[in-house]
């Protein structure tokens, strides 16, 4: 697409968010980049001037999210592409994760994306165009031991976004779930962690032993071209994997689900009963 667009990118100070922010600016678009610490974005602001609006934002604060989107609309006239990238990854077995940790994980990864999505929708509906790119994970489609709380947030994001896509299609708004597989971005190292319980040492061992499930770490910088391609596609997909090896893992996952459901279909039929007397 030739005309410059306005992007709103959360979690823009590090990892994939930082790479994507720079790539979008380099190609000439405008970016509202949000982060808890906007000082990290100062070098980009120096290079790109008025095309970058850095904003301090805690995505769990709904009022602050609404204010940030309003500031973006006032500055650039509207948000064309929303990238919900802010998030962290809590490692821990279900029993290990503290109550406040579990709530914080959902507040950032799910509700943060929900609030920003809701905030941009009125403007997108009015213009009858827009792109919403939700950064999920292959963990939004499968679940591995010691990542239950993190992956629960991504499963929630997946469900909400699939429903949303059907709701807003009539307004020319496209929703895409981006599902990265394995990229060395320092996400786990920068995230809060649960207190290990020796009773679940086997679960953590299974998680880290399984990190070689055919997944080869990808180049984070290469994701920028893929992101721009998704944003530019006339008819973008609802879901797209970033990285390789995911299709084989998902074929195994979904085949196993269907096999298990088929094996226990006699109970499904038992539960149905015979209300029509047939």
Description:
The protein is α/β, with parallel strands linked by helices and 278 residues long. It has a seven-stranded parallel beta sheet with strand order 3-2-1-4-5-6-7, sandwiched between helices. The protein starts with 5 loop residues before the first strand and ends in a 6-residue tail after the last helix. It has two domains: 6-244, Rossmann fold; 247-278, no CATH class. The mean pLDDT is 93. The protein has helices at residues 15-26, 42-48, 62-76, 99-127, 148-168, 201-209, 223-232, 246-263, 265-272; strands at 6-9, 30-35, 52-56, 81-84, 130-135, 173-180, 239-242. The chain is built from nine helices and seven strands; from the N terminus they run βαβαβαβαβαβααβαα. Helix 4 (99-127) links the parallel strand 4 and strand 5 (130-135). Helix 3 (62-76) runs parallel beside helix 4 and helix 4 (99-127) runs parallel beside helix 5 (148-168). It is globular. 46% of the residues lie in helices and 13% in strands.
């Amino acid at each position: 697409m030739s005309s410059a667009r306005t992007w709103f990118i959360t979690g823009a100070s590090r990892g994939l968010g930082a790479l994507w922010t720079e790539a979008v600016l380099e190609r000439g678009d405008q970016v509202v980049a949000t982060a808890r610490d906007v000082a990290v974005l100062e070098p980009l602001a120096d290079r790109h001037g008025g095309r970058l609006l850095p904003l301090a934002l805690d995505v769990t604060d709904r009022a602050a999210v609404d204010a940030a989107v309003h500031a973006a609309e006032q500055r650039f006239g509207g948000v064309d592409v929303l990238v919900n990238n802010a998030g962290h990854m809590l490692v821990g077995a279900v029993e290990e994760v503290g109550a406040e940790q579990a709530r914080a994980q959902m507040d950032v990864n799910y509700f943060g994306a929900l609030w920003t999505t809701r905030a941009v929708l009125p403007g997108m509906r009015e213009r009858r165009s827009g792109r919403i790119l939700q950064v999920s994970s292959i963990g939004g489609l499968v679940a591995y031991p010691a990542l239950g709380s993190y992956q629960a947030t991504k499963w929630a994001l997946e469900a909400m976004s699939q429903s949303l896509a059907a709701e807003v299609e009539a307004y020319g708004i496209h929703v895409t779930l981006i599902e990265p597989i394995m990229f060395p971005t320092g996400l786990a190292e920068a995230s809060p962690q649960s207190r290990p319980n020796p009773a679940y040492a086997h679960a953590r061992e299974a998680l880290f032993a399984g990190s070689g499930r055919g997944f080869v770490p990808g180049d984070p910088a290469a994701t920028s071209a893929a992101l721009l391609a998704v944003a530019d596609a006339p008819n973008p997909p609802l879901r797209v994997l970033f990285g390789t090896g995911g299709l084989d893992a998902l074929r195994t996952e979904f085949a196993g689900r269907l096999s298990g459901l088929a094996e226990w279909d006699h109970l499904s039929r038992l539960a149905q009963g015979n209300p029509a007397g047939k």
